[in-house]
Amino acid sequence: MIGIFDSGLGGLTVARAIVDKLPDYDIIYFGDTARTPYGNKSKETVIQYSIENTEFLIKNGAKIIVIACNTASSVATDVLRKKFNIPIFEVISPAVEMTLSLSNLKIIGVIGTRATINSGIYNNMIKSIKPDIKVYSAECPLLVPLVEEGWIKKRETRMIVKKYLHPLKTKKIDTLILGCTHYPILKNIIKPKIGRKVRIIDSSLAVANKLSQYFIDNDIIPNNTGNNHIFVSDITPHFKDIAKSVFQKNIDLKQVKQ
Questions:
Q1: Is residue 140 annotated as part of the catalytic site, yes or no?
Q2: Active site residue 180
Q3: How much is the mean pLDDT over the chain?
Q4: How many domains does the chain have?
Q5: Pair 122, 108 in one domain
Q6: Using CA atoms, how far apart are residues 204 and 94, in angstroms rounded to an integer?
């Protein structure tokens, strides 16, 4: 069983990508909606939450963990890998690998939470592989709360996205990494605001491909039935609506306390 956790509902984009890529595997998802967002919390708090989330998933049968949260991926991956003796995947390195596989890269933009951008992880990882590529980053602290509140189609959301993207647009970026798994839910707003010629990198697709390749390389054959178990720490009407939008069907949510 594949265990996936996120600070809230953004990681459902990762869960959906994994279900599409690996339909015969069971997944268990935990969205920490009671404590979202993670992006404005301290490193120590995010690490503690990530440990608790991982323990919950393992207790409920997960044999592989996917950190479907860029903030947690940027600060907690090494801690989790040392603490838990199971394969642990994060969403940052697959997104970087997907980005660098593209041709004619010159200027990359990255958007993410304050914690992810301040960690410098995307910039450092890209520069360590291709030091000649320019990388510009932008903090977008309001986007996660807007998604969690279901403000997907609000005029205010479009205005805020435009404001956040403006500095990157002036840099004439050719590729934009969505450095938060909530952001693909806003892709239809982001794409026209940044420019339709700019390539968009969705980390949910990147990590699903990475996981699929891991199963192939290690000759792992599914012995599951493709069941999806979705848990949250707080059930909200917006979560139900967006979960339905992401999966294109009604999702049975179960609430658990962390």
A1: no
A2: yes
A3: 91
A4: 2
A5: yes
A6: 9
User: Which range of residues forms the domain containing residue 39?
Assistant: 2-90+205-255
| 171-195 pLDDT tens trace | 999 999 999 989 999 999 999 999 9
pLDDT digits (tens, 9 = 90+) for 53-101: 999 999 999 999 999 998 999 899 999 999 999 999 999 999 999 999 9
Across-strand partners of 110? Answer: 137, 177
140 and 235 inside one domain: no
Spot the catalytic one: 146, 176, 180, 201.
180
Q: Quote the CA–CA distance of 98 and 23 in Å, as a whole number.
A: 22
Bridge partner residues of 148 (DSSP): none
Residues 6 or more apart whose Cβ sits within 8 Å of residue 219: none
The radius of gyration of the chain from alpha carbons, rounded to an integer in Å, stands at 17
Catalytic residue among 46, 47, 62, 69: 69
**Does 182 lie in the same domain as 153?**
yes
